[in-house]
Amino acid sequence: xxxxxxxxxxxxxxxxxxxxxxxxxxxxxxxxxxxxxxxxxxxxxxxxxxxxxxxxxxxxxxxxxxxxxxxxxxxxxxxxxxxxxxxxxxxxxxxxxxxxxxxxxxx
Length: 107
Hints:
This protein is 14% helix and 39% strand. By secondary structure, it is mainly beta. Strands 1, 2, 3, 4, 5, 6 and 7 form a 7-stranded antiparallel β-sheet that branches.
């Protein structure tokens, strides 16, 4: 099975032993000629604290709980860590994630 993620998609991923398996938002996909070939992702969490860096998504139909994107948890992943596509963020939701990233990184 070919794993072909796109920005704004949410995938279930193996985040390693400590971070467990969880949904992640795809932020950036490497070009075919990128030697590192790593995805940039932000984890989703259902433990919402209302902190800066959380983008509340409500309860998407494709997730079991009310969730938020944690833009402070940015990570790079090999696409082989992804197991299945769960859904895709709406344009307005993705715009809020991008705004939170700009604020976090002072861009």
